[in-house]
Amino acid sequence: MTTNPLSRYFRKPTAYIQLPTRGIFNPEIERTVMNEVAILPMTAIDEIGLKNPDELLNGQSLVNLFKSCVPSIPDPYKIPNIDAEALYLAIRYATYGRDTTHSHTCSNCKEVSDFNIDINYILSRFPTIEEVPNISYEGLTIFIRPNTLRSIMKISIIETEQNKLINYYASSDFENSDEEYAAKRIYDSFRKIAVHNVDVIADAILKIEDEDGNEITDQAYITDFLQNVPSSLITEIQQHVKQISKVPEDVSTTEFECPVCNQKDKVRIEFNPVNFSVAG
After folding, report:
1. Do residues 32 and 16 lie in contact, with contact meaning Cβ atoms separated by under 8 Å?
2. Average of pLDDT values for 203-229?
């Protein structure tokens, strides 16, 4: 195939970033000698994808964005969510520069104002996750990792199912429905939520090591294990995962001063394409 004579004018990396996890959970990611990931600016197609509400809701637009702008990541679904949030900001930086605009409604006078946020400053405040405490259970050692992008998508499915259940309770369909039908529908919804919850927890387990040093990494085995252990262990795993997956509040919170009434509001910024540019 003939090489496109215009290929030397194609986009090139305009930013480099060290992942918050330093890539310890994804050794397959290609990095520089400085342990950085190269970031390409968005194309017009990438920008259109971020405006598709369906793809935003199911996370597909973010996966496509990473495939386009961070080609060194073979499988975006496998990266920890905290890395995904940092990468999204880095892509905005590579595309539009260090400043991004956030619309905020004043809590006092309700004036809506636009404020500039320094992406580079926010990125510098991301925590470094290089070691995660393990969990011991009856001779087993459970190795935990932060929630991946895939599990965050499943959490979105869980939230959707929960909203469906709430809406059904509040609807006339519930009041007028046959008791057996209503009970079955409620059970089916709770069952779906429970299954997705177990999948999310399983996704956060890197491996389980037994007393003989054997490593179990098969997700089917790990899921089966989670479905047959006390709920107290599930709660402990969830607490560990939540602690290492969440962006600290001091990183995601910034203060805005209303230009009209001088009211100062502290606002938590969401580092994802669904919520990042939504008024706070």
Report:
1. yes
2. 94
